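Here is one chain, start to finish.
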Amino acid sequence: MRRPDPGRRTLPAVNSPRIVATDLDGTLLTSDRTVSPRTRDALRLARAAGAVIVFVTARPPRAVREIAEQAGVTGTAICSNGAIVYDLDTDEIIESLPLDPGAARRAARALAEALPGVGLAVETGRGVLAEAAYTRRVPEDMPFYREVVSVLEEAEPFVKLLAHSPAHTADEMIAAVPATVKGLAEITQSGDGGLVEISAPGVTKAAALDRVCRAHGVPAGEVVAFGDMPNDLAVLTYAGLGYAMANAHETVLASVPRRTLSNDEHGVAAVLERLYG
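Its structure:
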């Protein structure tokens, strides 16, 4: 099967985009969750041409800063699916958009009824509060976990409600959420098995990216974006140039006409080299 040509443009495109917006897991990072030397060089090439690099990720701030150091990236990062705008240089959260507790309770009840045994956790921006039934554990995140009886009874504001079911896929879980609940929150997935992520209404990666672009005086047509999962789809359609990774979720591949190579084939680098080389 012929590999996609990362430089082939089937739609009108911009030259030398002023902002490079990229997802991390499954996109910029290889499967071992590192930034390859080729990708690091390509990011350096884009910066030398005057482009601003913006990470747009489901990860919380604490899981982004080390990657930014690997990649040689500074400035602003969009974290937690757009609920947080984070300053990589000062380690400060610039903007935080919490989820309404009432909407979170309704979503949690709906998931519990549709998917018995589902485990819940919440992301606060600086840590994770998890119920005992939430068995998903990210090793590097363990110092930031705190087990609680009920995440929805905690007073601490949170930016994401996390629902995990080892017995279901994320697609199955999202399909099980009633339409009435979907109207109260943004519900998406970023690719980790049976994990669904719930944010406040209107909180998406694309909405946060639009605010960052406006702050830089850059229109959407001068953005190149990369992603692989449904939570990236709004960003890929927002940008003047949106590229789906070859390893992307089927929904993304069906919706985004531009393709690049997979994350393990340095697909982001392949496009940046052509755009800025």
